Amino acid sequence: MLPRKTLTAGLALGITLVVVPAVAYTAHSATADDLTPYAAAQARAAVNEPPPGLIDALSDDLGISAQQAETRLVNEAAAASVEPGVRAGLGASYGGVWLTGPTATMIVATTDQAQVPAIRKTGVEARVVGRSLQQLDQIKATLDQAAAKAPRTAPVWYVDVVNNDVVVLSSSPARARAWVKASGADASAVRVVRSDERPQTYYDVRGGDAYYIGSGSRCSVGFSVTKPGSQGGFVTAGHCGTTGATTTGHNRVNQGVFRGSSFPGNDYAWVEVNTQWTPTGVVNAYGRGIQPIRGSQVAQVGASICRSGSTTQTHCGQVSQLNTSVTYPQGTVSQVTRTSVCAEPGDSGGSFYSGDQAQGVTSGGSGNCSSGGTTYFQPVNEILQVYGLTLAGSGGGPSPTGSPTGGPTDPPGGTWAAGTTYATGSTVTYGGATYRCLQGHTAQVGWEPPVVPALWQRV
Question: What's the whole-model pTM score?
Fold first, then answer.
């Protein structure tokens, strides 16, 4: 483990990064003080041995070698770890981060030319862009507000950090452009791309493991979760069932009840299981093994990602865009992630994961796994926050409810709160655990202590 001095000193630089091949760590002789936050994150990630099934899946579906897949996983984990510090360091000039190439080279975008030397000096590729991510998000938010008037021929729109614009996919570009103009969004920043995508929700499907709703439809388990005072359960897609609906498991044994569900607008839900079921922190990847889930750090654009569902089993691809709105026949769902992973009816609610990090639950898409397709997932961190849930530990069941002394357990959030400015060394509680701040920052939604180890250390 690296000395605390290395991490705090490096993180204070905000955006000090370096790209080093993962294989270098087997013979790296530099002192701890030589490591930047990115190199330190790579070193931490390189300690975890990836499951062989995951390496095989990435090699097969991305067309890369096993060594490239291993290096890619290390670099993706490092990028996810340091991205919050990059965002904070660049402030209003932050234009986004994406990964590119077979081993996931990290690229940082900024609107401020003066930031380029500092970025390049550390070995990370820099891009100067015309619009900040905040500006792009606002443009897309304007389109979201006009979603009810979007033509059915324009079912998808998203922020494209790589090209520094907002994209609308439509089979009728002229109608899409007219809608964009009427919405009041900055049309100069919106690119309409011709597409025949017809996204639909996957009601008649299974995910990592199948479950059934009532006496009919079938969906997929996303990720196991725990909740204080509850038996725990799992998260899944909101379109699979409404609050109060009952479920049976893959074996048709009584399983649980939908305790919360939101669709459209969102596409998430959680099911509380009964005592016959035990949540465990793994994903069934079928012929590629059992994949442990150890957290939920957000994979960035260009990162590899896999999806598990019992209709098409395990398939992998890449993250295309993070902030996407997609219109299904039932309505628009916002802030989902767009991927190049295929899916078919029978995969709804199933697990999207990157390395050992949970990403989200399958929402819908277009195409199939024979000719290829596009699939969208609802990010898991929002689901956890909305319902006060915690991912079940790898290979284990739900955490015991209550404190060791029998008193109440801190709900997720604890004393930590978004919008609060924390100094280095300060401590908070979240989900019953205590965390120490590694770098002074102002907390934001999505920066919960378990999600950003670059900012918080569990004590």
Answer: 0.69
